[in-house]
Amino acid sequence: MSTAEMAHEADHHGPPKGWKRWVFSTNHKDIGTMYLIFALVMLFLGGAMAMVIRAELYMPGLQIVDPDTYNNLVTNHALIMVFGLVMPAAAGMANWMIPMMIGAPDMALPRLNNLSFWLLPAAGTMLVLSMLIGFIPGTGQQVNTGWTLYPPLSIQAGMGMDMLIFTIHLLGISSILASINIVTTILNMRAPGMTLMKMPLFVWAWLFTGLLLIVIMPVLAGGVTMLLFDRHFGTAFFDAAGGGDPVLFQHLFWFFGHPEVYVLLLPSIGVLGLIIPTFSRKPLFGYKPLVWFMGILFALGLVVWAHHQYTVGMSLGAVTYFMIGTILISIPVGLMIFNFIFTMWRGSLTFETPMLFAIAIILMFSFAGVTGVMLAVVPADLQYHDTYFVVAHFHYALVPGAVFGLYAGVFYWLPKWTGHMYDEKLGKIFFWWTTIAFNITFFPQHFSGLAGMPRRIVDYSIQFTEFNVVSSLGAFAFGLSHLLFLYIIIKTIRGGKEATNKPWEGAQVGTPGLEWDLSSPPPFHSFTTPPAIK
Amino acid sequence: MCKTWKSPGGIFSVITLFLVSGAVFADYALNLPEPVSPLTGQIYDLHMLTTRIAFYIMVAVIGIVVYAMFKFRKSKGYEADQNMHRNMFGVWGWILVPVIVLGIDMSIAGSASSTLAQVEDYSDADVTVKVTGSQWKWTYEYMDDGVKVVSNLKKLEPTDELYLRDVDNPLVLPVGKRVRFLHTATDVLHAWWVPEIVYKKDSIPGYINETWTRITKEGTYRGQCAENCGTGHAYMPIVVEAVSEEKYNDWIHGQKLAMAKASAEASSDKVWSRDELVARGEKVYTTNCVACHQASGEGIPNVFPALKGGKIATGPVADHLNIVINGKSGTAMAAWKAQLNDLEIAAVITYERNAWGNNTGEVVQPADVKAAK
Ligand SMILES: [Cu+2]
Ligand SMILES: [Cu+2]
């Protein structure tokens, strides 16, 4: 559909009615909404699994689930949170905001957009089935590998593993298509005058994210396909007895897996790059440097993957290289934190919910950064590796760094999306509740890890009891806080104080902020004629 | 809502609360255990160095952010400085910060490199132990003495102090000697890890990885498998008894005698009675097979087949011999021909065919096993 046709359509009618509006949708906002709802559903599913995991770990001994079900839950919890929650939520925000931010009528490839979303529910269903099928007799062992799917353990698993492999194929196709669409939109659909260096930071973040996904997803898809062949077609890519190499899979997985961390983080960094200037009423301390750092992160991120495998027995030269590369990442990340802090410095600060999240993210993400440097040091990692210290580190990186960043985005943009202000008081209660509970859950895990508790164990010796009790109690409170989150979102959709076009005073400081020129909620087709860039 | 919680300073109080909680939990293990070898000692120091750096960085970041939150608030009438990014700091900060970070990075990498060289030092050892991980037990082979020890979880109640931490046969090592560990696995990945005496490297089928230690203090040291190896991953503890050189030599000598006796027995042409074989077989079964097929012989549905009333355990003897001797590739069922001698295989098969109501009454002799190989 050409832009002209679309404009024509908009003149005559609004959105189609009923289920067709959603199933056949080519509208970036409707698709964005569907992405966000899907992510919300997955948040509760993955969260429920985490609750079972923490309930099982509340005390030593086996109480709730057997060992295979436990590790199946661990596997699915990770995959759901990564591929079901964070990536779709970030894609939903990209869909909603990028066309509005760059002054485009819609995404560049609207039908592809429809396809990339609708692959997700199919993948999600397959993922859940891969877990449930293990309970049917005759289907073999459950998927008990953890999300890394390392062979030979993943060769032993039953039919659930095959379904998981196909799930990853579907997810891969979905995110590659979405990335192609987003990158194309950013490069081709900008309004006249919206130069690359004027784009809001969120758009830049997604440009790098999209490119990164296009590079890494095929590698993961290839890796799991080789696994499928090893399982059923007699190849021996990863079987030492047949001349293959079990460690090869780890290299393929982490070539995807490390940059994937940036795929999860970058969109949220983009969100922070808008929120912090807004509530500091002051332009970003360094816009251009931040763009550069994201570029450096992109490049460095692609060449440090083996820091996840220091224990496999690489040569001294190889581990030294991966150690130095990994430690160097602290430079762009440190500059990013510096940038955010000095955006606040000598600003005029107010502390609405998105800003509270942003500040908490700066602090907690810095903490993940310093434990990350600790982990990068090879000899020390030979002690930390595969313990709860690692679990604590990456939850500090990914929950504040990715998930809380998205929550901040939800609060920041809910007024724009729904036309209503959210309840600020409830928002703040949610912030404090969820942040404190998060810390109670994961902070003690640093200690249990150092004391020697390995990951992915269903049962532990009594020396680890105290920290696990605290962790579990924190986790239950953390889980519960999300009911309040859901309530706030529903309440805002259903009503509330009307939002103006630009509900945040500082929203356009230092950025064109085209999205804030549109009404709240915006019209069905965002810009039918290109807007003027200030 | 209470005023203090609303204030951004709340963040700070929460964080200090956690730092204080460290003191509250002082009775519990908070840190890496006290090292008892020079190399784990070096790693420990490295860990403390990076921890300290991490702590100071966090104090600085929290300090600056909290200061900014109180100083530059709109509610206090503070106006934003729209040109701050153009002042001296705004221009030179971009050079200053990377230089500082790079300096910290390089000093960390520098102090890591000598320890790393130690880790990768493969000079000769006094004692070499090949450590083999299997689902779900450890096999220790003393390469110089031909002694072999299989180490299994000792089943205890979850209230016991040593729950999941004790084994039937510990690894015995001499103090003061350089010990080399060669790590490999028979089925899936494992990782042998006893934090006090040695860091970990993965046990990988088809690979030999190497670690080393020199234990400085006699005692019992415990660890467990660190790399996910499936159903029994939580049930693979490791116990190392570090003893004086004298005691170690006595122990090795005793093991050698016992092994010589066992192999003489196994290779003799003796024809064994059913009861003798069942009694021996039960022992073999409890050390080698219970982890999967369970003491009840009922296995775990969908994962490990039941031998009680099982198709093979009550069917033709040839099939039974075949699966135990050769295993089944692509499954957790290993080939036992290299790990058990003929007598042990004969005994365990006889046991399985006569236990749990599998009343075949059949007897399998070591000679049958030899013939089937
Ligand atoms: Cu990584
Ligand atoms: Cu293991």
Describe this structure in words.
The complex is a heterodimer of chains A (534) and B (373). Helices cover 69% and strands 0% of the residues of chain A. Chain A has 534 residues and is mainly alpha-helical. Chain A has a single domain (30-513), classed as Cytochrome c oxidase-like, subunit I domain (Cytochrome C Oxidase, Chain A, Up-down Bundle), CATH 1.20.210. In chain A, helix 8 packs antiparallel against helix 9 (246-280) and helix 15 runs antiparallel to helix 16. Residues 1-12 of chain A have low confidence and may be disordered. Chain B folds into 3 domains: 30-119, Helix Hairpins, CATH 1.10.287; 127-261, Immunoglobulin-like; 269-372, Cytochrome Bc1 Complex, Chain D, domain 2. Chain B has 10 helices and 10 strands. Chain B has helices at 3-6, 9-24, 38-71, 88-119, 245-267, 274-288, 290-293, 317-326, 342-354, 366-372, and strands at 127-134, 137-142, 147-151, 171-174, 178-185, 190-191, 202-203, 209-214, 219-224, 237-243. The relative contact order of chain B is 0.09. Mean pLDDT of chain B is 86; it is low at 1-15 and 20-27. At the A-B interface, helix 4, helix 6, helix 9, helix 11 and helix 12 of A face helix 2, helix 3 and helix 4 of B. The structure holds copper (II) ion (2 copies). One copper (II) ion (CU) binds at residues 133, 190, 225, 229, 233, 236 of chain B. Residues 258, 261, 307-308 of chain A line the site of one copper (II) ion.
| Helix/strand/pairing category of chain B | alpha+beta
Q: Quaternary status of these chains?
A: heterodimer
Gap from first CA to last CA of chain A: 29 Å
Shape field of chain A: globular
CATH hierarchy class name of the largest domain in chain B: Mainly Beta
Portion of residues in helices of chain A?
55-70%
User: Which ions and ligands are bound to the chains?
Assistant: copper (II) ion
Mean pLDDT level of chain A: 92
The helix/strand series of chain B, from N terminus to C terminus, equals: HHHHEEEEEEEEEEHHHHHH
How many extended strands of chain A? 0
The best one-word shape of chain B is elongated
CATH superfamily of the largest domain in chain B: Cupredoxins -  blue copper proteins
Our count of domains of chain B comes out at: 3
